[in-house]
Amino acid sequence: MKKILAIFLYLIFWLTFFQILRLFFIVYHLKKFAGIPIIEITKVLPYSLRLDISAVCYIFAVIFFLLILGEFIKKKFTTNIITYYSYLWIIIISLIAVVDVQIYKEWGSKINSEAFSFFNTPNEIISSIISSPVILLLILFILFSALGIILYSSVFKLSQRFIIQEQRDTLLIRVIKLVFFYCLLFVLLVIGARGGIQLAPMNTSFAYFSIHEILNNSTINPTWNLSYSILEQPKNRSYYLRFNTDELDLLLIDYQPIATENTISIFNKTDKPNVVLVIIESFTADIIESLGGLPNVTPNLDSLIKHGLSFENFYASGNRTFKSLPAILNGYPSLPADRVIKYRYIYKNFPSLAHTLNKYGYFSSFYYGGESEFANMRALITESGYNLLIDQRNFKDVEKNSKWGAHDHVVFDRVLNDIDSFETPFFTTILTLSNHEPFEVPTEPVFKGEKDQKVMLFKNTAAYTDMSIGDFIRKASTKTWYNNTIFIFTADHGHSYAKNRINKKNPEMFHIPLVIYSNLLADEYRGRKITKYSSQVDIAALLFSQLKFDYSDFIWSKNVLDAAQ
Alpha-carbon dihedral of residues 69, 71, 76, 78, nearest 10 degrees? Predict the structure, then answer.
């Protein structure tokens, strides 16, 4: 019991120290909080706890083994190591916190691995030092280090006789303690380090809760963020080729969009219609009969293709959701050996569908029935400018009857209910999840008794999602906003199961649908199929060229409906 109390006090010390440093960050950037309600600012504390606890658990990992060692040797040795080890972390964390506030002031992002790139350019280091309040920052670093050590010493006085005790128990009792107490402590440390027992391990998305960037950044623990960004760097950067600006211009000139006035108008009118973008999980073209896929799996999407405008040669930018989302939402292609969604300081400057539509007076919302924190998606979605994000935390427990969260029909019904209260025009993005391993459906399966169980399971979840899409469109057709709404259906990526594809690099693995369906669609384009090759990065130019909105920021996106392209 005494040892538990000592560990608890150690945790409280670090959480308190992190909050002191967080308050320093807020005060240092106080002007950025102007106009934000106090009640919103107070949410920084609870939303920061998970990242802080994760950081403490990683710090405590060494102490965990010292505690086990302390069961068998005198306490003075291990006590001194724990004390100086903690002092070292106090100094390191204080330094990171002080550097972080200045980096945020200069870069607009939290401290990350990019900070070390300055060591390759000494002149930039000197320039940065000259332009920074070095004396002030040095004083603050010393003050916070001293404050942390004093605070720790106070806690240590309460707990030093409990952290490691002289052992007078028999060897058997010591072994029992090791088995029960330390196994339990190890499990708690692992859970704390990964942020809980949810599917998605800890990442900065867990700190995102607000449309105000400064609040989200205030919740992020700079020490955790720096460590994470360093560990997540590509282990080998030799695959990068180096070019100067002139060489790049010559290489890319043939790939840049051509500004012309030859865009084909496919709608009868485009006076700020509502836009609903549906991103369907793992919806490969291999299950869509209209695109050469298996028969009778997606009758509803086939019907939308028959009455809408579809793109026969449309391809995903990546093979995972976290690779394709930046392509769809930001018009940024998937990287060959890394994923951009990990690096907030990069994608925070990206253009996005939501940012652009917000600028033209749209209300933007994003719906996902699962954990939006998965693979850092929440951070990307928030930085992309969505006014509203609904994920599994916004659904009742009885509605979350899938391993991943709420099934597709539940999410679609929630969208229909919410949209009725939205001001128009609105832009709503829906990311489905049911067509994913373990391929479970909340309804009676359509396909039964087939020889290949893997293919059958995949077909059943795809058929269920297709049915949910059909119900969604039928229900939407009764709404007042329906006739002035453009529906865009695509997939996040393909999948190998439908046709048991072995070669994961086969282009057909990335072949997915893109369908535009709307009552606004001109009659001559209903049922028409565009044969030009295109990908997810082209959605931005395709949409905004039709709405006559500026899309020049989307440099990778080409207008497929431009006759000159």
Answer: 20
Shared domain for 163 and 25, answered yes or no, is yes
User: Is a pLDDT exceeding 50 seen at residue 487?
Assistant: yes
pLDDT digits (tens, 9 = 90+) for 453-472: 989 999 999 999 999 999 99
The residues pairing with 278 across neighbouring beta strands, listed in sequence order, are: 430, 489
Q: What is the CA radius of gyration of the chain?
A: 27
Does residue 73 sit in helix, strand or coil?
coil
Domain with residue 488: its CATH number is 3.40.720.10
Domain count along the chain: 2
What phi and psi values does residue 546 have, to the nearest 5 degrees? -75, -35
| Domain presence at residue 236 | no
Q: Is the domain of 214 the same as that of 299? A: no
Tokens of 337: 């050996």
Per DSSP, which regions of 41-81 are E strands? none
Within a domain: 421: yes
Smallest CA-to-CA distance from 384 within 332, 433, 318 is with 332
Q: Which domain holds residue 75?
A: 2-231
**Nearest CA to 9 among 92, 75, 98, 82?**
82
**Residues pairing with 491 in the sheet:** 280
Same domain, 206 and 275: no
Task: Give residue-wise pLDDT tens across range 94-116.
Answer: 999 999 998 888 777 788 876 66
Same domain for 352 and 461, yes or no, is yes
Task: Answer whether residue 557 shows pLDDT above 80.
Answer: yes
Whether the CB-CB separation of 489 and 513 falls below 8 Å is answered with yes
Q: Do 13 and 75 sit in the same domain of this protein?
A: yes
Q: Where are the alpha helices (DSSP H) in 132-244?
A: 134-163, 171-177, 183-194, 213-219, 222-231
Instruction: Report the alpha-carbon distance of residue 257 to residue 464 in Å, rounded.
Output: 39
| Paired tokens of 153 | 């010493």
First to last CA, the chain: 73
Rounded to the nearest 10 degrees, the angle between the axes of helix 453-476 and helix 408-419 is: 10
pLDDT in tens, 53-81: 999 999 999 999 988 887 778 778 888 89
Q: Which amino acid is at 144?
A: F
Distance CA 309, CA 557 (A): 19
